[in-house]
Design a protein that fits this description.
Length: 500
């Protein structure tokens, strides 16, 4: 016979939770501790000489192992967060806990030593050049060292404390567009030649990104805990706060543009996309998605288009005035940069075979492959917008689709480029793409094999280990069968996300 009060207990909110919801607090707690521990391990490893083994293993192996382990923990965290859905996830302290975990992961790495990456030296040099009133696109570091630059830059080089001599690719002029240069200038204003000042700038931009992401999730009536997909990602935390890559500056402009589109503020959205393109050129590919609602009322689309063109022209001016010749970083990157690529390597090989068959040996297979990839990405950015946006989530899907396609086909697939996708994945999660968090740390094994005869072949194998499973899962999920610009595509994305 039922005991008094049994019905009340059965209807208690705790009794209505699924087993997954009941164990969610434990999963969140353990995953949070694991991710925080990974940042602590990165910190300790960063202060250890890379040429001295740790417990019998090369430090690079430890770096990769910690990164992959943290990535696996992160995927469990994502599954727990997304798997709860909108109704079941009612853990009072969940958001606060995840906020603190992500914050701790960042703060721990602020005093770390960059591991296997030194791009930040160029940032610090460029910031000082701009602060001195000089054009950072005008002279390569080697020109300054050789005395073939204005006296102001030569004096700046002598005051750099040896930093100038350590800048990578010294024969090339800066590759970082003007908006990125403004962030370098801000770091120089805080403290010249200071990595901590630059990391402080990164931290500020990262906080803005997090705030914008929370606003977007509320705008789309999605759980704000999904912001942890961005905030607690160990790969991006490592790349931003240990390696100190400047892609952190790009993210808030992408999210600001998306939020303004959702709020029907097209003019301001166009300006934010222009600023994003002023950090990295590729966000210009997102303009067709912004302009798509104005196809039937094209006059309303003229203003945002003109705003984007005007700002893009302004940002291009110092680069164009300095010239696009052989020592331009932009020219060198566009023509020959190739690293950690999987699909592009196959495209380049096929291009080479085709040119041989057609006796077109005078053409460079690599450049033909780049042209083919550019054509595919541009055509996709346009074609994906052949249908109008039927609901707000569609624009997120199109942004993500273009960014993911560009990354997966790019001749340069650096781990920190994953930050181009990650803010959109916090809104439309995709298991195959999130899997990159656990696989991209394998990139750093290239430094382990670099000195050996098997370096080139090892890099190719490593690239396919990173991207092969992702591509296979994307195909398996049938993403190629879904019409990218349709409402069904966006809906299917959400259904897959909640099935993680």
């Amino acid at each position: 016979m039922p005991q008094p009060g049994a019905a009340v207990e059965a209807n208690h909110p705790a009794a209505l939770l699924t087993p997954a919801a009941k164990t969610a607090p434990v999963v969140l707690a353990l995953c949070g501790l694991g991710l925080a521990a990974s940042s602590i391990l990165f910190l300790l490893l960063s202060h250890h000489p890379l040429n001295i083994p740790v417990l019998g293993l090369d430090p690079i192996v430890w770096l990769v192992g910690i990164g992959m382990g943290a990535g696996a923990i992160y995927l469990i965290l994502c599954r727990s967060i997304i798997g709860q859905g909108k109704r079941e996830f009612r853990l009072t302290g969940a958001f606060t806990w995840l906020l603190l975990v992500g914050l701790l992961m960042r703060l721990v790495l602020l005093p770390s030593t960059p591991m296997l990456e030194n791009d930040y030296l160029r940032y610090l040099w460029d910031g000082s050049v701009v602060a001195a009133g000089q054009n950072p696109f005008a002279f390569a570091p080697q020109s300054v060292i050789n005395g073939a630059a204005p006296p102001t830059l030569q004096e700046l080089g002598m005051s750099s404390g040896g930093l100038l001599e350590s800048v990578t690719y010294p024969l090339l002029r800066s590759i970082y567009p003007p908006v990125a240069q403004a962030s370098f200038l801000l770091a120089n204003w805080l403290e010249p030649w200071s990595l901590m000042a630059w990391r402080t700038v990164i931290f500020g931009f990262d906080l803005v990104s997090f705030g914008l992401l929370l606003t977007i999730l509320r705008q789309l009536a999605l759980p704000i805990t999904w912001a942890a997909i961005y905030w607690c990602n160990p790969l991006i935390v490592k790349e931003f706060f240990n390696s100190a890559h400047m892609d952190a500056v790009l993210v808030p402009f992408l999210l600001a543009a998306l939020l303004l589109i959702l709020k029907n503020r097209s003019g301001w959205a166009a300006s934010m996309l222009a600023f994003a393109a002023g950090c990295k050129i590729w966000p210009a590919l997102l303009m067709p998605s912004l302009l798509r609602p104005f196809v039937q009322q094209w006059r309303k689309g003229v203003a945002p288009l003109l705003i984007f063109v005007a700002l893009a022209t302004l940002f291009s001016a110092p680069v164009l005035l300095a010239g696009l010749n052989e020592d331009s970083g932009f020219v060198a990157y566009g023509r020959s940069w190739q690293r950690n690529d999987a699909v592009f390597g196959v495209i380049a090989w096929l291009a080479g075979q085709t040119l041989d068959i057609l006796s077109l040996d005078f053409l460079d297979a690599g450049r033909v492959a780049r042209f083919a990839v550019a054509l595919v990405v541009v055509a996709t950015a346009l074609g994906i917008n052949r249908k109008d946006l039927s609901e707000p989530i569609d624009v997120v899907h199109r942004f993500l689709f273009v960014a993911a396609l560009l990354f997966l086909l790019s001749p340069t697939q650096y781990p920190w480029y994953f930050s181009w996708l990650l803010p959109f994945l916090a809104i439309l999660p995709s298991l195959p793409l999130l899997l990159l968090t656990a696989l991209l740390p394998l990139y750093y094994l290239r430094f382990y094999f670099e000195a050996s005869d098997a370096g080139a072949s090892a890099e190719t194998i490593l690239a396919w280990i990173q991207f092969g499973p992702v591509l296979a899962l994307l195909v398996w999920q049938g993403l190629t069968k879904i019409r990218p610009g349709s409402t069904d595509a966006g809906t299917a994305k959400i259904k897959r996300a909640t099935a993680l």
